[in-house]
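Notes from the 1:1 (GR / supervisor)

We went over the backlog. Supervisor wanted to see one worked example end to end before approving the batch request, so GR pasted a single chain during the call. The sequence is below; no edits were made to it. Supervisor asked that the structure be written out right there so they could see what the output format looks like.
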Amino acid sequence: MVSRIERDHARFRDIVKGKIKQNLKDYISRGEMIGRIGKQYVSIPVPRIDLPRFRYGLPETGGVSSGDGEVGTPLGPAYDPEEGGQGDAGNQPGEHELEIDISFEELAKMLGEELELPRIEPKGSSRIEALKRVYRGVHLIGPKSLVHFKRTYKEALKRQLVAGEYDPDDPIIIPIKKDFRYRGWKDIIQPQYNALIVYMMDVSGSMGDEQKEIVRTESFWIDTWLRSQYKNLETRYIIHDASARMVDKDTFFRTKESGGTLISSAYKLCNILIDREFSPEEWNIYPFHFSDGDNWSSEDTKICIEILKNHLIPKSNLFCYGQVVSRYGSGQFIKDLKENFKEEEKLILSTIESKDSIIQSIKDFLGKGK
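Structure output shown during the call:
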């Protein structure tokens, strides 16, 4: 009975996951699920799934063809005066919402399949190394915890067959000391590729709550994908208006907008961070900058271009700039980048007009597998 229940439960979860995958683009565009993140799982609300359940008739109401009635009288459930009705009358179907916990690994797999994202090819040296124990071969001695049961059974069976002790009518195999075999292991060194994500966001007066919510939603899905590609992922957050500072994740998304904009302040701080803590020879580096495209002056834009050309782009796997459309922003910065980096493959530009544009923006940023 337990195995049947487990099998049915697994089958039901597969059905639900299929529903999630079917509606994944809607989940990507919506931000409410981001508030349901745990350490290893994210809870996803799945609407419009009716859970199967038994329905019982009211007691002592009789069955079909019982009781008073005339030809043509419609059949239906009797009204229970004790239970009464609940809620007001209406003509719309009810909502049945179920929350399902999905691991980040499963979610990343769905994202990759839905957006057809290629696996990332990490760069970096093998100086970041990790020991991995690989079990190979069989030995005559070893600890009890590494007993190779299948090989031990075979050795005992062969010994009893040769000695004529094996009885097919009573096939009992009892290993003795010399029958035991043990799994052997070997420690091998594997290169361990690590990655750094630097999120930079403009929090000047022209970046409102709607724009920051778009950044919050998109960064969640970028994180989900990159975590599936790298064993160790470090994340840093930089906010800027006329000056830049390093903050934690909560501050990054909750800082109220104010002040003017000097984009170069964020780029300078990002470059200092990389030089101090993350060598490009050992880390795969992904800076993401989100802004509405307003910058204080063309002179500061020139400084940004110089930092990108000589520092940030050479040190990064990709440098991704997402311009979130705002009614108050001029949108000029992305035009300047296009003009100055016409053939730079490591600079990815994306215009994000609304939440519906998040899907295409993620594909723009991660679709080259770098």
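Supervisor's comment: The chain has three domains: 1-50+97-116, 129-189, 194-366.
Batch request approved.
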